[in-house]
Amino acid sequence: MVSDIQADFTEARQGSLAVPGADEAYLTRVRDALASLRELGLPILATQDWHPADHVSFAANHPGRRPFEILKLPGGSDQILWPVHCVQGSPGAELLIDPADLNRVIRKGPDRNHDSYSAFRDDGGAETGLEAALRELGAERLIVFGLATDFCVKATVLHGLEAGFRVTVVQELCRGVNPEGTERAWQEMARAGAEIWPSLDLPGRGVEPN
């Protein structure tokens, strides 16, 4: 499960919400990892942030507000405001991985009223279809990596554990927005039961070809 490897989240493409360290060298590591997974015959799913232009999380849609401020939504929840990013059909929403490496792309965040860090469901509870796809594949274990550790990766990992999957997160293939938040995210995922791998060493960890 590879999270949000999209132009707007990378320094390599000078994205509007570029995650520190998401440079060309990082993208090469991710692509090499996907090739390794494909060689083992493992199914690969990717998420794609896919927002309408009037999305609630965009600071530009709230006059007088700036990116990274916290907005209290009508329902009482807090919403971090972000720069405009990953607008449906825009160059910034482009996936930077080979579609041939993927079994399925799960789009998230298409509802203007709800953010969606998790690959499983948005903040309003609407399912993305990921869990159904995993059940159809007969998956019991998820290997998760991508962008960003302290937001979408963390939310996906926690919801995966809640759904009863064994979840592994690969540190060297993740990048976070904020160093302090990223460190807290690693601790939170480990406490919740995720297995943390420093690197993607599949044969060394007993993962065999299908």
Question: Can you walk me through this structure?
Answer:
By secondary structure, the protein is α/β, with parallel strands linked by helices. It has one domain (2-52, 88-205): Rossmann fold, CATH 3.40.50. It contains 4 helices and 8 strands; from the N terminus they run βαββββαβαβαβ. The strands form 3 sheets. It has a 4-stranded parallel sheet. Strand 3 (70-72) and strand 4 form a beta hairpin. The model has no long low-confidence stretch (mean pLDDT 95).
In brief:
This protein has 210 residues and is of the alpha/beta class. Helix 3 (149-162) runs parallel beside helix 4 (179-192).
Number of strands: 8
Number of helices: 4
Largest sheet, if any? 4 strands, parallel
Can you tell me the CATH class?
Answer: Alpha Beta
Separation, N- and C-terminal Cα atoms: 17 Å
Instruction: Assign the structural class, choosing from mainly alpha, mainly beta, alpha/beta, alpha+beta, or little secondary structure.
Output: alpha/beta
Second-tier CATH architecture? 3-Layer(aba) Sandwich
Shape: globular
CATH topology (fold) name? Rossmann fold
How many individual domains? Answer: 1
Helix content: 10-25%
Radius of gyration: 16 Å
Task: Say which CATH homologous superfamily is assigned.
Answer: Isochorismatase-like
**Widest beta sheet: strand line-up:** 1-6-7-8
Mean pLDDT: 95
Low-pLDDT regions = none
The string of secondary-structure elements, in order, is EHEEEEHEHEHE
Percent in strands: 15-25%
